[in-house]
Amino acid sequence: MRKLHEMPRWVERERRSSFARASRAGKRAAKTEPRASTAEYSPKERALRIELTNRAAITLPVRLIPDLRRATPQDIRAVEILGRGGGLHFESLDLDLSVPGLFFYLFARPEWLAELGRVGGRKTSVAKAAAARKNGRKGGRPPIRSKADPVES
After folding, report:
1. Average pLDDT of the chain to the nearest whole number
2. Is 152 within the bounds of a domain?
3. What is the mean pLDDT of residues 10-35?
4. Maximum alpha-carbon separation in the chain
């Protein structure tokens, strides 16, 4: 007979299985997602500098992080790294920020992507110039035809 405090076998098996899946997912995320190794606040720049576990570092102006816009320098300076670097904690603000979520929020916005395209479009290279000349000899892009336009034969 089972004691009252013992779990049924199927519950224990499910608990172990769930733990193993979560552990594998955590290890996979640690290898593929940005994780913080250090985080510090620079009051002079009013920016948060985050060094990642892959040794890359980024300095983010606080004004770009909505939850920190109105925070005092003292609140931000007390930043702590959560767990294995997946989050940042601000005790006096009762705020936790996901590092991967923060990067996604800041760098997947239309404004950022448009700026990348604008800057990338200004870059020149031998290959880009050759492709432009080749396309120019072809007469540029073909006109866009609607289904109502007659097809020439």
Report:
1. 82
2. no
3. 81
4. 87
- As given in the structure block, the two tokens for residue 60 are 């983010």
* Residue 89 lies inside a defined structural domain of this protein: yes
Determine the average pLDDT of the residues in 34-43. 93
Range of the domain at 91: 32-135
Structural tokens at position 131: 């492709």
Per the structure, the count of domains in the chain is: 1
Q: Is residue 97 part of a domain?
A: yes
What are the angstrom distances between the C-alpha of 41 and each of 69, 80, 90?
13, 11, 12
Tokens found for residue 125: 């290279």
Closest CA to 109 of 76, 66, 78: 66
Q: What is the pTM of this model?
A: 0.57
Query: Which amino acid is residue 96, in one-letter code?
Result: D
CATH number at residue 40: 3.30.2020.40
